[in-house]
Structures are given as C-alpha cells and as structure tokens.
Amino acid sequence: MDRHRSRSPTSSYHSRQSSYKRGRDDPGGSYHENKSFRPHNHQHHQSGWTSGQGTPSSQSLSTRRELYERDFPVYKQPVEVGCFSLDSERRFFNDGRQMRYYVEPDRNPHFDLRDGYRDRFIKRDDSVKEKLDHILRWVIANRSKLKSKVPSASSSALDVDFVTWRGHLTKLLTTPYETREGWMLAVTRFGGTLYISEVETESARRERENRTERHEEMMYWGYKFEQYTCADTVHALPDPGGVVNTNEAFCTVVQTRLADHRLLFSGEVDCREKDPEAPPPPACYVELKTSAEICTPKQRSNLHRFKLLKWWAQSFLPGVPRVVAGFRDHEGVVVSVETFHISKISHLIKNEYNCWKPTVCMNFCCEFLSFVKRIATEDSHRVVYLFSWEPYKDVTYSVHRDSQYSFLPQWYIEEITRRPDSHHLS
Ligand code: 0WD
Ligand code: CA
C-alpha cells in the first residue's frame, strides 16, 4: 500500500536563504531575494495519511541556478574510511583486492578500443538493481568505525546523516545544469541515518533497453581504455590481451561533511598511482575517461561546458585529484591523452560563456540534503520518501509505505538492530 503525504513549506528556510550573500559574479539585472523553497500546488495527493500537522499542502525544491549562486559551502576534505572490492562474479570483499595501478600511456598511444568487444568482454547485467547492498555490507563489516560516540544512542546509530553512492551525489551536483535526464531518489530514515538509493526512471529504463549496437560498443570503450592503462599489481604492466569484465570493481568509502550534513558514501575508483611516495588515498587515485577527440574550438568549448562538469563533480566529491582522458576518433582509436587536475578545472572553464559554477552545484546539493532531512522524518525501514526531478521542473516528493520502493534489505535491518556493539558488552 502506498501512502502519500505532503507538507507545507517552513518559513525558517526562507529567512535562512535570504541571508545568503549574492555571488560576486552574479549576472546583472534585477535581483530577487533568494528563495529556493517555493510553495507548489498539487503534485502528490493525500491518501489516508494523517500527519496531525496542519492542512494538506505540498512542497518542492527549485533547481534554478540563480538561487544557488553564493559562497561555496563548507566541504570537508574527504577521508577514506575503508574500501571494498567486487570480483568477476560481483561478489563482495571487504578489502582492496581489485585495486589497480596506473601506468602512464604515451601522449599519442593509438590504443584500439574496439579490440576484444566481441570475444573478450563480460558485461555486468545492468538490469540487476543492487541498490545500496554493497555499501550496506561494508557498513556491517565496519560498524565500529562508524559508531556513535553518544552512549545512549541506539545500536543502529551510525554517526552519519547520509549513506549513499557517490554517483547519486554526482547527479545532485549537476542537477542545476542538467537539461536531458531526470532522476528519482528513494530515501529511508533508519536509526537516525538517511539512506539514499536511486530508482531507475521510466525513460532511463527505456533507453537502457533500447540501446543501439553502436552505443553498446561505445560503452565498452571506456572499460577497454582502463585495461590499456591499468596493471593488476604495482610492478606489472597492463594486459590488453586479457578479458574485460565489468563486474569487477574497487570502491572507496569516504566520510566528509557538506555544511551540517555528515556524509558517508562509496564510489568506484579506476586506479591509483603506483609510486610508493604517492600521497595516501584518496589523493593517489586516478579517474579514467574517454571522450571524442577535439578538432575545433567549438568542441573544446563543449568539453568544458558539459563534460568537465560531470568529471569535476564525480571526482571532487571523493577527493580524487585528477582525471586522465583518452581522446578517441570515430573508429575508437585513442589519438591523444590529457590530464585534468580537478583543482584547476574551475579556472579552465572561467572563460566559457554561460558556463557552470562549482558553487551552484554544491549549494544545490546542500539544500537538497536539508530538504530531505526536513521531509523524511519518520524513522522506519518500511517507509520510502521518493524524490523526483525532471529538467526544467522543481524537485517533488511522495511517501510510500511497504511499497516496491523499499530498499533496505532484511539482513541489514536484522544485523544492525539485533547485534549491539560488541565493544560495550564487557
Ligand atoms: O545498479 C545500479 N543502478 C547502480 C550501481 C547505481 C549506482 C552504482 N552502481 C554500482 C556500479 O555498478 C559500480 O560498481 O556502484 C558502483 C559505482 O558507483 P559510483 O562510483 O557511485 O558510480 P558513478 O560515479 O556513477 O560511476 C563510477 C564508475 C563508472 O565510471 P565512469 O568513468 O563511466 O563514470 O562506475 C562504473 C563506471 O565505470 N559504473 C557502472 N558500471 C556498470 N554498470 C555503472 C553501471 N550501471 N554505473 C557506474
Ligand atoms: Ca572511469
């Protein structure tokens, strides 16, 4: 049974919003007081839910860029608190066995990314939705690292506000600039922590089920580039003759804070520097990308305006300092390789007209998390608050009890509630 609930906007948000300074590079023209929370009528309707708090009304979150142009919010340097690996059969290991080591290619390497697509490629089944399962496994195996220091806190208290995938946060960061793909994020409050797990939208499902053969092959190119540039051990060399298996993954787990939101998230990491003098994770990590070769100033500008936004957001979040991009031609041959330092990307894009701004991304994400905290108040693994967004619209939500959207697995609920911290037993 799904139940929907909506609540009215809270004025305290308006007053907090309006106290923010207008960004220095705010475009001219009439300035309106920032109000990112606006009343919005009738997206979802009441169906038998009584919150006991006032009249039925609803609330939404604006994604308009101008509302988020203010000082960069506090974002603490992300700290790696652990890692895990997924093997060739997608089995979880609470260790770094799938870590790979970056081997710098020539500047003009002529890697053939099409090689092996037909005969040496094992593709992960992306119709299987794993939700937060791997992260939850990591949490269970590493609970002592996350225990609340408050003695009276319940055994399920984790001392973080949000648990999610890095990829979900990337989508939030890029939302104010996204014009094509919407998203749906399911949120459950459990033991005081908010878990955020993506739900595939109808249009994303249609796209996944109707990919062209060309698109399928191009998705392989990114993984093939990784194979050309990564070795399995510190002293080994890449093995382009091997099999590409996209079930395998090495994931970092990081903790950080965005304003007053304590975050725990995991992201897949392609490889690390092999130099033993390299800084500790996540500063030694390298993100690999492929992109179409740049032949004209217009193409360079488009890279800056659209792709660098996604690359920046994805790597900035976990504190990965650089992206190595392989630029390939139409035949899938890498013709050049370029390194982008995340800390320099904001300077690179400054000369682009009407370009994206990191501060807008971070402030929007921060406001979304505040919105979630305020809406998702019932602490129950059976309740999902489903936040939905489509380009050019506001973020809206609906509430679902014991529905298809519930995503915290029973084993997790049991593990975390039935086994209090063993350290406190003696
Ligand atoms: O089942 C699902 N719907 C999801 C699975 C949703 C979110 C994540 N995941 C899994 C991925 O399969 C992967 O193991 O979580 C892990 C990655 O999480 P993330 O780091 O939070 O995701 P993101 O930052 O979007 O992607 C990082 C990398 C990608 O690298 P590129 O350079 O292409 O951005 O993870 C890989 C990919 O290499 N990846 C995937 N691989 C296979 N299937 C997928 C996917 N659906 N998503 C990301
Ligand atoms: Ca990558």
UniProtKB/TrEMBL annotation:
Q: What is its EC number?
A: 3.6.1.-
**What enzyme category does the UniProt record give?**
hydrolase
From start to end residue, where is composition biased (Basic and acidic residues)? 22-36
List localization entries: Nucleus
Give residue ranges for domain RAI1-like: 76-412
Q: Where is the composition biased (Polar residues)?
A: 8-20, 46-62
Catalysed reactions listed for this entry: a 5'-end CoA-ribonucleoside in mRNA + H2O = 3'-dephospho-CoA + a 5'-end phospho-ribonucleoside in mRNA + H(+); a 5'-end NAD(+)-phospho-ribonucleoside in snoRNA + H2O = a 5'-end phospho-ribonucleoside in snoRNA + NAD(+) + H(+); a 5'-end FAD-phospho-ribonucleoside in mRNA + H2O = a 5'-end phospho-ribonucleoside in mRNA + FAD + H(+)
> What is its cofactor?
Mg(2+)
This protein's source sits in the domain of life called Eukaryota
- GO cellular component terms? cytosol; nucleus
- Region annotated Disordered sits at 1-63
Record function comment: Decapping enzyme for NAD-capped RNAs: specifically hydrolyzes the nicotinamide adenine dinucleotide (NAD) cap from a subset of RNAs by removing the entire NAD moiety from the 5'-end of an NAD-capped RNA.
**Protein's recorded name:** Decapping nuclease
Q: Which organism is it from?
A: Salarias fasciatus
Which gene name belongs to this protein? dxo
